[in-house]
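Agenda item 2: fe (iii) ion complex prediction
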Amino acid sequence: MSNLLIKNIGQLYQIDKGERNLVRGSEMADIPSLKDAYLLIKDGNIADFGPMSVVPNINCEILNAGGKTILPAWCDSHTHIVFPATREEEFIDKIKGLTYEEIAKRGGGILNSAKRMETCSEEDLFQAAMLRLDEMVKWGTGAVEIKSGYGLNTTQEIKMLRVIKRLKAESPVTIKSTFLGAHAIPADFKNNRDGYVTSIIEEMLPQIASEELADFVDVFCDKGFFTIEETGKILEAAAGYGLRPKIHANELGFTGGVQIGVKHNALSVDHLEYIGDKEIDALKKSNTMPVILPGAAFFLRMPLSPARKMITAGLPLALATDFNPGSSPSGNMQWIISMGSILYRMLPEEVINAVTINGAYAMGLEKELGTITIGKRANLVMLKPIPSIAYLPYTFGENKVETVILNGKIVSV
Ligand code: NIG
Ligand code: FE
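Presented output:
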């Protein structure tokens, strides 16, 4: 593989000696950076970086950054981008005033996607998800977690996970795969919840584990979906296969989802619209990353997660898109960055930490991505000329990414 030397970087953000796995509390307002820098990439990895005054004289491909800003590419730690079809008919129902829970109760929502999944070919699912990934890269994303959860039976869940496996192999994006069989109770188990939970534990998990189709396990632990008891059972069984939880929690109420996640050593708990002192206390004693999903809160007009309160309490925070057809039909991380500042009052530095180092942690990639560190994979974004880093969240709707580098290679934007 060829080497690449990037010269004249105006600001190189999120440099790190490999000492930080995440940032929390007041640390989130700080991003270590280097002015007037170079960065050397060898075999897809960051081989060196430093001030231009000591730029190495190497005979290799050169990229002149011309004073522009470079950062790690965004790590989007929560998505559902493998889905059979968009659901804009439900969007109309929402405009007319129906809630997410009401739509779900009528057989819409996740069950609607599950029905369409039955007739969608693996090839069509793959092609559509690949297009979504390509679009996300254009906005600067370099790593994506993808969940199953629109199958809701063994055959269809495995179909989704195989699609994710193929995306891992064929996309330059770094991908992590999460088994979300417990996304909703399927129609044919409507009066037999226990039967569905048993099929997840006794049928789906063993098969998924034997084919090594998942990195993590997820449960939609919330009002109208899975109870704390059901969640506990599924997470315990998944732990037997070495699958760490990343769960949907506290989106629709104070359900105890955060606490059950922490109890099972979840890597992350995501959504978090309903967070009080008890949830914050549980998180403070844990290694679990709280992840806020601004796209879903915005799209469903939900109460906003108390981001500032969590940061003041000393917690880390990550932000992700939750890209899915029902509650967040966008994979645009720059829009998430803007919403982090505009809606959640997070400082530019805090949102950047939330989508780089902390996003990487929330998908178990903290040793590989998320900072500019020697030995980490060279997944980078170079921005168009910007007056200051605050410009990144300040303007929304405009693509500020000029060049994306994935695995050391320039990807066209
Ligand atoms: O993260 N909250 C649960 N699941 C998804 C929505 C999935 C859907 O509606 O298709 C979410 O918002
Ligand atoms: Fe989600």
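Discussion summary: The domain at 4-72+371-412 is CATH 2.30.40.10 (Urease, subunit C; domain 1).
Owner for follow-up: CH.
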